[in-house]
Design a protein that fits this description.
This protein is an alpha+beta fold. It has a domain of about 100 residues: Nuclear Transport Factor 2, Chain: A, CATH 3.10.450. Helices cover about 30% and strands about 25% of the residues. A 3-stranded antiparallel sheet has the order 3-4-5, with helices on one face. β3 and β4 form a beta hairpin. It is globular. It starts with 8 loop residues before the first helix and ends with a strand.
Length: about 150
């Protein structure tokens, strides 16, 4: 009797995207809600810009904020009001890494830098990543801020 290995859908979808034959184009709505000058429809963003917005939205999403998907997010906002020391920054780093690993399968994170800007009450987050189906292997950078605002 042969034993059959069952793989999860997540692993299967990653395996498909790694193939050099796939040339998937990701699309998303432009969150500025600008209208197209000719069709007057909402404009769209494509590929890298779409993925960057997805990553930024994931980082800024707290648990329970997405309707019907309360498990998506992280408690990063709760750490912003803690004393910014090596332990807190390490915890932020771990939460962002786990968040992207679990909920953004299109990217492979290469590096993550978190810098505390005491003067402005904000953190600078710089993420360098590669796209999982990119045959060129180009590295992209996302810079965002996490503000400590009540």
């Amino acid at each position: 009797m042969a034993i059959r290995t069952v793989r999860s859908a997540h692993i299967d979808s990653q395996g498909t995207n790694i193939s050099s034959k796939t040339n998937k184009v990701w699309k998303d709505l432009d969150l500025n809600f600008d209208s197209h000058p000719v069709t007057y429809d909402l404009t769209r963003v494509f590929d890298v810009e779409s993925i960057k917005r997805s990553v930024k939205n994931l980082i800024l999403t707290d648990y329970g904020e997405r309707p019907f998907q309360p498990w998506i997010g992280s408690s990063i906002k709760g750490l912003l009001f803690e004393q910014m020391d090596a332990v807190t920054i390490s915890s932020l780093r771990n939460r962002i890494e786990v968040l992207l690993e679990n909920f953004e399968p299109r990217v492979i994170m290469e590096s993550l830098e978190i810098n505390d800007m005491d003067d402005n009450n904000r953190l600078t987050v710089t993420i360098r990543f590669k796209l999982i189906n990119s045959p060129s292997g180009e590295t992209y950078t996302l810079n965002t801020f996490l503000d400590r605002i009540k």
